[in-house]
Amino acid sequence: MAVVATLGVMAVPGAAVAAENQPPSQPLISELKTGYEGCATGENRLYVAQPPALTAVLRDPDAVPPLYVGLTAQFEMWWTDPQGQEQRRSYSPEYQQGSGSSHRWQVPADIPADTLISWRVRAFDGTAWSPWSSDGDGAPCQFIHDKVSPEKATVTSTDYPADTWTDGEGVYGSFTVDSPSDDVVRYEYGFMGGPYGSAEPETPGGSVTIRHLPLRYGPDRLDVYAVDRSGRRSGTTYYSFGVNRGRAPVAHWKLADPAGSRSATAENGPVARAGAGVTFGAAAPSGTGLTSTARLDGSGHGFLTPDAPAVTPGKTFAVGGWVRPERTDRDMTAVSQDAGATAPGFTLGLRAADAAPVWSFEIGGAKVSGGAPETGEWAYVLGLYDAETGTSRLYVNGTETGTAVQATPSTASGNLQIGRAKGKLGYRDRWQGEIGDVRTYDRVVVPEELTRLARRAAQQTGHWSLESAPDGVSQEESGGQALRLGGGASIYTQSQECDLLDPECVPASWPLDGEGHLELDGVDGYAATEEPVVDTSDSFTLAVRVRLTDREPAGPMTVLSQGGERADAFRLRYVPAEYRWQLVMTHADTAGAQETVVASIASPDGGEGSGHRLAIVYDDAADQIRLYLDGHTTVGSTAAFRSAWKSTGGLQVGRTRSDDGWSEYLHGSVDEIRSFSGALTATEVVQFG
Predict the structure, then answer these.
(1) Helices (H), 136-280
(2) Taking Cα atoms as reference points, which of 53, 52, 49, 72 lies closest to residue 2?
(3) Spatial CB neighbours of 629, under 8 Å, sequence gap ≥ 6
(4) d(CA 439, CA 451)
(5) Percent of the chain having pLDDT more than 70?
(6) Is the CB of residue 89 less than 8 Å from the CB of residue 115?
(7) Number of Cβ atoms within 10 Å of the Cβ of 473
(8) How far apart (Å, rounded) are the C-alpha atoms in residues 433 and 615?
(9) pLDDT below 70 — which residues of the chain?
């Protein structure tokens, strides 16, 4: 039996009392909730995993400030039992709340499961009842209590069968997820390392198809569970499968054929014939494994073609290669494929934009552009069209460049072209410069592959361990250029001149590394090579170990520098006033040239400890300089840099060029100098730096 409060309208002191009481307002369906969900009925009825709390906002038209009207709720719910008998329950609290307040009834735990339950509510002001929320245009709210969780989902795939190794990374596959339970409305899933998501069947209990693109080879797993209408979830299903490495390119020309060849041998696909404007045996990007490339002269004869298509129109494909333009003042195509008599299906190359030249990948009228081509600079460029998503992307030196765009490719198919693109009046946008290692794929090229394809491994060009210097010359470990010592420079080696058993014996300190190191007096001591040890116009790395002798150095000191006629291309120095190691890169071989400076903070050594390992890196592909201190970069130790120039002077250890000659002599110890052509990675710097 419901308990109903009998409190009515109360007047605030000094306020007029309503002359005639009005009944409370009919509760609005929009202000009723079953649990956290709004009122639902009919086919939209709710399914709940636990007996819900029913809430309703009740209002009274007499509650016009300053009048207060206290209201009591009466909830009622009903259902039909298995015998066909209607069962009803009602509830009213023994307290009242003001108009506009929310009233609540926690449904008892013994309500039947899998049974349609309806409920409604009305308000009482102590004198009159409101209409039921279900009266007139209203309707009863309905829910079903679901006490059973769905069964585990099932997973099948013909593209990636369970417990089987299948081709492969970069290839989409379908996974069908189903459940024996007929009330499943959602599947939550995740692959090893991602992605994660959810999928809804068209009808409850139906199956879904999940498309997945493996981005790495190795073991993979799909974890999935089913969720029913009440929010109950099944146990997790684990579906394991293996992903092989990505398929080989459909077509691949290294373009490293012998000089004088008139065709390019194919690693995959057909041989490509070469026009008379193609010269084999041209230079190759260092650190790539390529021995040579092909130079195209930019004329109507500068092209290669297999006289066959290399990608399938409308399907997923990728195309890329190493390129080095001899000019950037006009449009040039590295790779394209004909699509009919007057247009290309896609083009990959260089576009001479108004502001600055850019790399470009164009397909079906959609263009992705970015990056900064430079005359005489190698770059690995790759265009990707993903038919699954309908997007095209551009990658330069392994990094996505520009913004992906939606593309609708031509369905026409023609011959692949290297060094030119089809136009209305014939071939156009001819390439002038080198091209090598052209590949086309019929799948997505995944990030790890992109990094590998675009990688230019740094090559060590020098290593000076500074263990000894007979006749003032310290040899390079592999017989390269020697460092010649000058002024107050010497090689320090440990010598023991007293008996260790003597209490007055003070043992000599050990060298920084190995059996000796270079000691510089800070006055005129230095060491130098006759020729440059790195090409400062291209990527390079230098690593060194340094210990400063003074606790409070008098002024800036340079550890390494290499310059031209009027300026240093770079110098690595310590500035005691700022407690900073600095890498200074000049923009030109001119006095007073602009400089780009990056720095890391460190206190002077004072002649104690093992010093610091420093490494300076110029990454030409990324147009970036980096200063590593003990294997790490910090805020302010990296910067963009696009003004590299080729220095002609030898490496200077312990001094830098100035207007008056040499200056910033180092007072300290130097050891383990290494030079590299190419940019070391952060991982490699830890090893060498």
Answers:
(1) none
(2) 72
(3) 581, 600, 602, 612, 613, 614, 637
(4) 15
(5) 96
(6) no
(7) 12
(8) 33
(9) 1-19, 495-500, 506-508, 689
Whole-number Å distance between alpha carbons of 648 and 485: 20
Please count the other Cβ atoms lying within 10 Å of the Cβ belonging to residue 564: 19
Closest listed residue to residue 332, CA positions, set 417, 223, 444, 208: 417
Q: What is the pLDDT of residue 112?
A: 96
pLDDT at site 509: 81
pLDDT of amino acid 500 = 62
DSSP string, 21-90: --PPPPPPGGGEEETTEEP--GGG-EEESSPPEEEEE---TT--TT-EEEEEEEEEEEEE-TTS-EEEEE
Q: How far apart are CA 6 and CA 125, in angstroms?
A: 7
Report the pLDDT value the prediction gives residue 496, as an integer from 0 to 100.
Answer: 55
Whole-angstrom CA distances from 418 to 182, 298, 313 are 57, 11, 17
| Cα–Cα distance for residue pair 183/193, rounded to 1 Å | 29
Q: Cα 533 vs. chain centroid, distance in angstroms?
A: 35
* SS3 label, residue 682: helix
Q: Is the peptide bond before 195 cis (omega within 30 degrees of 0)?
A: yes
Q: In this structure, are residues 568 and 656 in contact, taking their beta carbons and an 8 Å threshold?
A: yes
Q: What is the pLDDT of residues 158-185, one digit of tens each?
A: 999 999 999 899 999 999 999 999 999 9
3-class SS letters over 37-56? EECCCHHHCEEECCCCEEEE
Residue burial 200-224, b: 16+ Cβ < 10 Å; e: rest: ebeebbebbebebbbbbbeebebbb
What are the tokens at 254? 């290294």
Under 8 Å CB-to-CB from 33, ≥6 apart: which residues? 39, 54, 55, 56
Of 231, 233, 24, residue with least CA distance to 121: 24
Length of the chain: 689
| CA pair distance 156, 400, nearest whole angstrom | 34
Sequence-distant (6+) residues with CB within 8 A of 428 are 331, 333, 420, 421, 422
Considering the entire predicted model, what is its pTM? 0.83
> Which residues, at least 6 apart from 387, have a Cβ–Cβ distance to it below 8 Å?
314, 315, 316
Residue type for 475, please?
Q
User: Which pair of tokens denotes residue 439?
Assistant: 């590949």
CB 683 within 8 A of CB 613: no
Asked if 641 and 594 touch (Cβ cutoff 8 Å), the reply is no
Place of tokens 């030079």: 675
Nearest to 240 by CA among 179, 175, 151, 172: 175
The continuous run of DSSP H or E covering 252 comes out as strand 251-253
- Strands (DSSP E) contained in 602-685 are 612-619, 624-629, 638-640, 651-653, 656-658, 661-663, 667-677
Burial (CB < 10 A; 0-12, 13-18, 19+), residue 525, is buried
Is there a cis peptide before residue 66, judged by omega within 30 degrees of 0?
yes
Name every residue whose Cβ is closer than 8 Å to that of residue 407 and which is 6 or more positions away in sequence.
363, 364, 365, 366, 385, 390, 391, 392
User: To which H or E segment does residue 219 belong?
Assistant: strand 218-228
CB 380, CB 321: distance < 8 Å: yes
Strand 141-145 and strand 37-38: pairing?
A: unpaired
Cα(436)–Cα(254) distance, integer angstroms: 6
Which pLDDT does position 14 carry in this prediction?
A: 33
